[in-house]
Amino acid sequence: MSELPRASDLGLIGCHVCRMVCRDVKAPDAACPRCGSPLHKRKSGSYTRTWALLIAAFMFYLPANILPIMRTVSLGDVDDNTILSGIIELWVKGSPDLAVIVFTASIVVPVLKFFALGLLLISSQRGSQWAQRQRGKLYRLVEFIGYWSMLDVFVVALLTALVQFGFFSQVEPLPGVVFFGLTVVITMIASMTFDPRLIWDGRDSDD
Hints:
It is built from six helices and five strands; from the N terminus they run ββαββααααβα. It is mainly alpha-helical. The strands form two sheets. A three-stranded antiparallel sheet has the order 4-3-5. Strands 1-2 form a two-stranded antiparallel ribbon. The chain is elongated, with a radius of gyration of 22 Å. The chain crosses the membrane at residues 51-70, 98-123, 144-168, 174-194. This is Paraquat-inducible protein A. It holds the Pfam family PqiA.
């Protein structure tokens, strides 16, 4: 089966804002006729920016797991919990549903995003044509789960609200939440700076 032509082969270019498909007029100041955004075949410096953001996010993720993320006070017992110990604390205190949510949002989702973005970057930079469709779907998955990445921060806020219902005597957010929030925001920006069109470029990447 012959390889399908790319948009650049057909003289087309897609707007990265409104997704309108436009004619590639090859002008340096070309703009989308619908929304007026500048048109460009590929995001400038996509590899460099995404790698920098991904590494920065990983560096913030380490203290997010080491430093305590919340403090719980129950019956005079004060506990400063990291993400993992907080998950155990929630489970022991009779909130397994919240424990599963925190584990998914704090451990599964960030690790999946680190692995997925790293795989996309390495394979695209090497010009690999391996599983291009699947890698495209993987990128869309990373974008989708990015919307749910702040669940852990929301859970800490929820736990604080649960105080009035008597589940805990006191719950306070600690510095680990800040580092985790930074990790979430930076990974979201990293996924935005990565240009998924690079997956299809192979050795012909312009970046």
